[in-house]
Specification:
Layout lengths: L2 E5 L3 E6 L6 E8 L6 E5 L7 E3 L5 E3 L4 E4 L4 E3 L2 H9 L5 E5 L12 H10 L1 E7 L1 E5 L3 E5 L2 E7 L4 E8 L5 E8 L2 H8 L5 E3 H9 L12 E3 L15 H14 L5 E9 L3 H13 L3 E5 H16 L1
Parallel strand pairs: 4-9, 11-18, 14-18, 16-17
Antiparallel strand pairs: 1-10, 2-3, 3-9, 4-5, 6-7, 7-8, 11-19, 12-13, 13-18, 14-15
Helix pairs in contact: 1-5, 5-6
Bound molecules: zinc ion.
Zinc ion (ZN) binds next to helix 1 and helix 5.
């Protein structure tokens, strides 16, 4: 049986927000079982709490935002990716600003800090979402397919008309070990021209080569280069793992994402949720369910 997991201590990280250009502190605290992930806008006088669930999430082109309709926290996706990848069920996230700092553009700074403080288990079984049947969501050239499975498997494909990216595809079964070793360190990426344009328009006030891989027409501007040759597709999978966690629990399914982005992921998950295709299962009930399904198949 798998038990619910929180952190054994407090994690504090501080960094520049790329939208605001301000220094923003984030504190993650352990939480009681069955409380899920709760974000708090700790910088506001009333300290509003925004629980993580699919109804409180908005998928934007390049980021995911959490909102209660009045207050916002932008760029939650890499932190959610770390929570999902490390199988954290319950935590309180105090954010002293309107966005989560990007740090190096990967989930690794979160992963390292969470591993440093360690985990605390409760004797309450973990909750997960399983699929009742296959589901496909398409928007323009982007598409995502969800199929029932007993493990979380993600296959993603990207295409960018750039000599260093082109077409990349990768399939991986996600568990804490594969997440840490294969995915967590992959950084987000952006193109210099678009970045300059956004800076000039004032959409982003911070951001530098230390927050992302930045590409020119034919080269990488970061002096250290790539961390791994296919870092781009690995970051896409990192994003998908984070976006799936907007459901509030792990989604166990086989997922194929083609040319997808945050907006598509969140729209697809909202449709999946509304269509009633998600089955919330406690890990205790899961063993029986799997045996039952096997017997049914054998009939
Ligand atoms: Zn990302």
């Amino acid at each position: 049986m798998e038990y619910q997991r929180t952190l054994a201590g407090k994690v504090i990280l501080e960094g520049e927000g790329i939208f605001s250009g301000k220094n923003i502190k984030v504190e993650i605290e352990p939480a009681e079982e069955n409380t899920g992930i709760n974000f708090i806008r700790a910088d506001l006088p009333k300290k509003p709490v925004i629980p993580l669930n699919i109804e409180n999430v908005i998928g934007l082109e390049g980021a995911v935002a959490l909102t209660d309709g009045e207050h916002f926290i932008y760029l939650i996706e890499h932190l959610l990716s770390a929570f999902h990848g490390l199988q954290i069920d319950n935590a309180i996230v105090k954010v002293y600003g309107e966005e989560i700092p990007l740090f190096d553009g990967s989930a690794y700074p979160w992963v390292r800090k969470i591993q440093e403080v360690g985990y605390k288990f409760s004797l309450v079984p973990k909750k997960k979402f399983y699929l009742r049947k296959s589901f496909q969501y398409q928007n323009g050239s982007g598409k995502i397919i969800f199929k029932p499975s007993n493990t979380l498997k993600i296959k993603a494909s990207i295409f960018f008309e750039h000599v260093l990216i082109g077409h990349q595809s990768l399939e991986i079964e996600i568990n804490p070990r594969s997440y840490i070793n294969e995915i967590s360190f992959a950084r987000t990426f952006g193109f210099k021209d678009i970045l300059f344009e956004r800076k000039n328009k004032g959409i982003i006030k911070g951001g530098s080569l230390s927050n992302a891989i930045i590409l020119d027409r034919d080269k990488i501007l970061n002096p250290e280069g790539l961390r791994i040759q296919d870092e781009f597709i690995r970051h896409k999978i990192l994003d998908i793992i984070g976006d799936l966690f907007t459901l509030g629990h792990s989604l166990v399914a086989e997922i194929e994402a083609v040319y997808s982005n945050h907006r598509l992921h969140v729209e697809a998950l909202k449709s999946l949720y509304k269509a009633g295709l998600l089955e919330e299962v406690e890990s205790r009930a899961l063993a029986f369910l799997l045996i039952y399904k096997k017997l049914k198949k054998a009939e």
